[in-house]
Every structure is written in structure tokens, then in C-alpha cells.
Design a protein that fits this description.
Blueprint (H helix, E strand, L loop, with lengths): L2 H22 L8 E5 L3 H7 L6 H20 L4 E8 L7 H21 L3 E5 L7 H14 L6 E8 L1 H18 L4 H7 L2 H5 L12 E4 L18 E4 L9 H13 L7
Parallel strand pairs: 1-2, 1-5, 2-4, 3-4, 5-6
Length: 260
């Protein structure tokens, strides 16, 4: 069977498969918070004979709206999207500048649709001032807009977040006149959690990573201690609703013990 024929057959079968998956899903078991590592944009570009990796970044940005729509349909109330890591900030300056502009355009599009509250997460002080100001403006404008929160993790690294949280805790306690001994005594899991970028939010129930890589790479290190993980072979721009439904099915079939 030739590739065009295979693609045509798959195109006809996928809607049937989607309906089958939907019948199998128990939406009372829907995760409240889903984190997604949007991985594989550059490799997607290469596999599609695109010399410029920005083609993959554009394709990946365009996929975000689809994912958020699927999450809405499944009653997921918090979605955390990892758009840029702190390691990514070390890329070639020309590629990084183009990527930051693509991310900014994607965030603007999310804001313009008016469907979600948008919250930036990350070491925003490491970002260019123009992007930092834009993210703060979008956050303020969208606050309380809907019950669905979209966290856009930009300039985000899990280790960096934990260090920032502990530093902020120590600074707050010093400001209250506490001694080093008192600060050491007060330091706890709950206190660190209060100073994370995601403070006040439930931890992710499900973390999805595309592109076939099976590691967190620093994504929500603290928060994902009890998360379920789903690794998908598809590059992010090729991620389909079928893949998302498979992730929800896998999540619903697992028994979460939380260490018990």
C-alpha cells in the first residue's frame, strides 16, 4: 500500500477510533491539571524537509489552540504548557530571538481569543524586557477571565524554580526579623510550595510529553512527585486528538496510590 493510500485510510479510520476512545473514557476520572512538554518542533521541521527550525516552532504554536480546546471538552481546568526552558535561553541568539517572537505571538493569540486566564511561569527576569512586560500585561488583563487557567512556562526550569522558592522564603523570613536558626526550623515542604511559581494551584495529575523522549528534563520537578506520566511518540506539531484521548484513557486506568 502506498503512502498516500495509507494516509487516506488512516484519515477515514481516525474519526471512528476517536469515537471508540470517547466511549471508553470515564470523564469522572478526568485530570484536573495537565502539564504538557511540547517537544519535537525542530525535529518535526527536519523530518518535513524544512531547513529553518522556526517552521517547526510555528507549527507547534498553531497546535496549542487545538490542545486547549480538547482540554476544555474534557473539563481539564488547569493546563501548564512548557514553551521555553532556561536551557533554551542558551541557543544561538538569532534562533532564540525568532523563537521568543513566535512565543509572544502565540500568547497574544491566546489572549485575543478571550477564552482562558493566562498565567506566565518561569524566571521572567531572564527574559528580554519587552517579552516580560507583555507577559505581565496579558496576565493582568486575563486574570479571572474564566475558570480555565493556562500556565505558559517560559524561561522555566524546575531546579531554578526550587532555588527561587527557597530564596524567596528566606528573604521573607529575614524581612520579618527571623534568625537563621528560626528560618532553618521553619523551612518545610509546605513553606517551599507556597513560594513556587504555581503557588495556590493543585499539582499536575497528568504530565504528557511528546516526541518519544521519556524524561521530565526539569519540568515541574517539585509538583510532579505524584503525577502520572504519558509519553507520546508523535512530535508536538503532529500531536492529535487521538493521542490526547489515549493519554486520558491511560490516566483513568491507573490507580493513584500517593505513596500508600
Amino acid at each position: 500500500m502506498t503512502n498516500p493510500i495509507k494516509r487516506a485510510v488512516k484519515a477515514m479510520l481516525y474519526p471512528l477510533y476517536e469515537r471508540r476512545l470517547l466511549r471508553q473514557l470515564d470523564f469522572t476520572q478526568t485530570p484536573r491539571h495537565v502539564g504538557v512538554i511540547l517537544d519535537g518542533n525542530r525535529r518535526w521541521a527536519k523530518s518535513n524537509f524544512e531547513a529553518n527550525p522556526n517552521a517547526g516552532h510555528h507549527a507547534g504554536a498553531n497546535k496549542i489552540i487545538e490542545l486547549l480546546t480538547w482540554c476544555e471538552e474534557a473539563d481539564v481546568s488547569i493546563i501548564t504548557l512548557w514553551l521555553l526552558s532556561t536551557d533554551n535561553l542558551n541557543r544561538d541568539p538569532e534562533e532564540l530571538d525568532a523563537l521568543l517572537k513566535i512565543i509572544a505571538t502565540a500568547v497574544d493569540h491566546l489572549d485575543e481569543l478571550g477564552r482562558w486566564e493566562i498565567k506566565p511561569l518561569g524566571a521572567l527576569d531572564l527574559l528580554p524586557e519587552w517579552l516580560r512586560l507583555k507577559l505581565r500585561d496579558v496576565e493582568a488583563r486575563s486574570k479571572g477571565r474564566t475558570k480555565t487557567v493556562v500556565n505558559v512556562a517560559i524561561g522555566y526550569g524546575g531546579r531554578h524554580e526550587i532555588v527561587d522558592a527557597v530564596r524567596e522564603f528566606i528573604q521573607d523570613e529575614i524581612a520579618e526579623g527571623k534568625s537563621s536558626e528560626q528560618i532553618a526550623e521553619l523551612l518545610s515542604i509546605d513553606e517551599v510550595s507556597k513560594h513556587l511559581y504555581t503557588a495556590g494551584m493543585p499539582d499536575p495529575d497528568l504530565v504528557i510529553r511528546t516526541s518519544g523522549e521519556q524524561r521530565l528534563s526539569g519540568f515541574l520537578l517539585w509538583q510532579s512527585a505524584h503525577s502520572e506520566f504519558y509519553f507520546c511518540e508523535a512530535y508536538w506539531p503532529d500531536f492529535r486528538r487521538v493521542d490526547f484521548l489515549r493519554a486520558l484513557r491511560a490516566y483513568a486506568q491507573r490507580h493513584r496510590r500517593f505513596g500508600r
